[in-house]
Structure formats: structure tokens, C-alpha cells
Amino acid sequence: MLIFAKLSAARLAVALAVLLLAAPGAAWAGRYEPDPRIVKVLKDLKPGHSVILGHVKVAGKDIEKWRRNFVHGPYIRDYCLKMPYMADRGTAFYAGANHATPHAFNDAWEFHLASNTWHLLFPPDGGNQLKMFAAQHAIKRNPNDKASADYLRDWYAKNVVLRDGTLQTRNGGPIRPWHTWDGLTYDPRTKRALWAVMHTGERHLRAYAEATGQDPKVLRPQIAPGTGMWMFDFDKGHWIRQTGTKFNPKMRAAGSFLHYIPDLGRSVWFGAEWNDDSGMWSYDSVENRWLNLNPNGRSRFYGVNQDRPGRDLVPPQEMQVAYSAKHRMLVAVRNRGLWIYDVDKNAWSKKIEDPDIFAHDARTVFAYDDRDDLFLLAYPGKGRLHAYSPQTGTWRGLFVHGAGMFTERSAGYYDPEFDVFVLVGSDGRTWVYRYGT
Fold first, then answer.
1. Beta bridge partners of 49
2. Which terminus of the chain has fewer CB atoms gathered within 10 Å of its CB, N or C?
3. How far is the C-alpha of 123 from the C-alpha of 106, rounded, in Å?
4. What is the pTM of this model?
5. What is the per-residue burial (b if ≥16 Cβ within 10 Å, else e) of 299-324?
6. Rounded distance, CA 131 to CA 135, Å?
7. Is the N-terminal amide bond of 102 cis, ω within 30° of 0?
8. Which helix (H) or strand (E) holds 134?
């Protein structure tokens, strides 16, 4: 503290405040005040027991404007059940668009367990984009559908801009986002959430050009090279598309995963659908650089879920993943199968197929409990919970004492701060379970 020796008392106070705000998580202590009652419930929860917390609170940017849509928070979207935990913020991130009804938003959220609060970080920009998507399909069916064509022109003219080499909504969001599947993660090095959105730039470019009376041939060179991965910048409060790279995945494979691997200091993207866009890459967010991992000496994995050689080598599309730093392994589940990616060997292998397990990207939640060294798989629709032990290489069903798991569609994660597995339902309830001490 010698650096403060010559500072006045006032300047010293300011300097100390700046240091406190710069400390990891310090900036969020005031935003999310823990609820003492909830904290006590979480701390008192016995091993093997569960409890349902009270109805979630909903706060955040422009929340009153969107309150009617978000009475219970974001409303858990199908094929979007992953909530990456952000240790430096003490919250879990959430985003993703529905497959169909009731809406397709490009919003961003974080959930704070100690206050049981959903916080809206980025309100839906461009409204419910399912309407735009429906108009596009209507025109495919009937090219003379004037009402749909007028709606599209009006929507693109009002809501879309070409800025920073990217077509985006006016406040900085992806156009017609897709689900997350398991393509959602958090990179603590750059403190950004990453989402494999599946960019469909050419379609939007033509529609935007028509809506604004511009030539797509003139606009096309203005689009920066990059991927369909969008990054949420918490300081700026909006999404940013990853650009500036030419050697990268196309990121057009549905049902892919995107997961930060702390031992690599990179996020890994894997896709096993579509012959021209399958494979496994890692992304260095600091260097803004992609690396083709070529695990098992292969760069393409299209068709691994079909009846052909190599089908069991890697997980098929629509898998769910979780990582164990203790074992330096990434575990993927899909239906009854379980695969392991060995970080040191850069290789996949199928380890087990269990008839009692059925992992599904729109129905189950998968996470790693690092304190008890278990991978947990929850079936909210069936009220079942299983644990996979990397020590024994086996699954087993868990008997849960206390509150039953609700049947609402739920997203979830493991919260290391309180050592609990968390499910947040579409109806605004939060179910928490503690395995061990």
C-alpha cells in the first residue's frame, strides 16, 4: 500500500473504490443483493435433499416494457437448456430462440441464485422474429404473397443495420437467431458469453438490400469474414459477431456444442451434421484465432449417427456436454450413449451405452458437480436424476429426498458457490439439489 502514501484522504478513498470495483465479482455485489432467507435455505440443505425456492424475481433493462412476456423470466426455450456458470459474476448466463412458438428473441439473461433473480441484460431487439421467419416461409410457398413481402421489407428497413462488418439488429443483436442446443458458453478470459447462432448472412443480406434499395453486390464486400458465433459483451451491453478470421468453421451445423475448456484456455466447437460443416475447432478469444483440432486424426464427422463406419467414434449432433478439470475430460451424452474427449490425447472414445439413460437436448439438463466428481443428468419431465462417475465409469439413479422435481421445461447448471445442482423452470420456480456435503 506504499503507492497510497502520498495521497490525500479523499484521493485514497477514490483509489480504493476503483480497486474494489476492479476485483472479480465486486461490481456485481451491489446489483444482486443476496436474500438472507434463500442463502440460509441453500446453506442448510442436507446431502441428497432438494428444495423448491419461492417464485423467481425478474429485473433488468427495460423489464417493465417486457414484463408481459417475462412474468417468470425468459421462459425456458426448447433446445435451449444450457446455462453456463460465470464464476467472476456469480451468475449463470442464458440465451436462445424457440424452435417454433411462442417467440424467437435475441435477448440475453443471467440468473443469480442467492437472490433467485432473473436479470434481463439485453431486451429483445427487433421484436418477435418468428413473425419475420413466418413471412419468409410464406413467400417460399407463394412468391406472389404481397402482404408477407411488404412485412419483410418493412421489418428489415426498421430493424436491421450494416455496422462493423456485420448485419445486425439496431441495438446490436443477431438476426433470426436459432436455438442454443449446447452451443452456449462463457469465456472468463475476455469475460464474454459465446453463442453458436448459426449465421445465415446471405439470406439476410438479400432481404436487407431489397428493403433499403441497395445492391447486394455492393453490400457483400462490406461483410467482414468470420463465423456465426456471437459474443455478448457485458460492459457494452449487446451482442458482437466474431469477425476477423478466414480460417474458421462455417458454424452452420445444427445441434453443435460450444464449451469453454479451462485447461486449454479456449472454447471448443464441435459439429457432426452436414458434410461441409462438421468437425471440431478451438477458439482463442484473446488472439481471436481458430484452430482445427482434427481429433482422432479426422476433420469431418458427418454421418456419425448413421449406419456407417465410425458411427460410434464421436457423439452425434444434438449432444450435451460438461467438462471435468480434475480428469481433463469433456463428457458428451446423447440418447443412451456417453462419449469422452480426452484433452491430452485430442481423441474421442465411446465409453458406455446404458438402457436406463436417455439424454435429449430439448428435455434433459447435464452438468458436472466438481465437488463430488459426478456428472448429473436431470429429466425434469419425468422427475428423474442420474449420476455418472468418471471414477467407476458407470451411471446410477439417485433417490432425492425433499421437494420433487417439477415437470416444467427447465434449464440448469451446477452452482459451485453453494454446491447445488440448479433447475430453473418456465413457470418461475427454482429447484435445487445437493448431492454431497
1. 401, 434
2. N
3. 8
4. 0.90
5. ebbbbbbeeeeeeebbbbbbbbbbbb
6. 6
7. yes
8. helix 130-141
